[in-house]
Design goal:
Strand content: under 5%
Number of helices: 10
Number of domains: 3
Oligomer: single chain
Length: 176
């Protein structure tokens, strides 16, 4: 057990003893004890009815799972409903855009509009907000896409390259 975990265990044990004393010796309500200890009433109930946290740990174990691809820990929405893939593997499995496709789209943007795409150029949210000012030009441009399909979103480009600017530099660099 790590030093931090030991410290939390000691603090919980001390708080449990105080909660029991106030409840059974002083006959205080859970709300009064919570105020005295600076904790939430739910925490005081947990101290009284699950002093070592064993019941909570048992319940939490039912929410956990293991990623089928890499073996990492997963979490679920309910007992025995843990995700079968961790966030990283799920992201890779659902990825639609390959870097080569993104670069091709950015080259097409430059060819069609005469300038590199910016993060706001690729943002549907920004285009919707700007529609009032520009008559929907940006929105129609995004919705129309290019010969290779829809434009990649700014978040997709940033996921792969860090920034849209860097992606443009890579996509638009002279081919040797």
């Amino acid at each position: 057990m790590s030093a931090a975990a030991q410290q939390r265990s000691v603090e919980r044990s001390r708080a449990v003893k105080l909660a029991r004393y106030y409840r059974y010796e002083q006959h205080l309500t859970i709300t009064q004890i919570a105020r005295l200890l600076g904790r939430a009433p739910a925490t005081i109930r947990a101290y009284l009815y699950d002093p070592d946290g064993a019941k909570t740990k048992r319940v939490k174990r039912h929410y956990r799972g293991v990623c089928q691809k890499c073996g990492a820990s997963t979490w679920g929405a309910g007992p025995s409903a843990a995700a079968t893939l961790c966030a990283r593997c799920n992201g890779a499995a659902t990825r639609k855009w390959q870097p080569s496709q993104i670069e091709a789209a950015l080259r097409a943007w430059r060819a069609m509009f005469g300038k590199p795409a910016s993060s706001t150029d690729l943002s549907l949210t920004h285009a919707r907000k700007a529609a009032v000012k520009d008559g929907g030009v940006r929105l129609r441009r995004l919705q129309a896409g290019w010969s290779g399909g829809p434009w990649p979103t700014a978040s997709v480009v940033q996921y792969h390259y860090g920034t849209v600017e860097l992606a443009n530099r890579i996509a638009l660099r002279p081919q040797i």
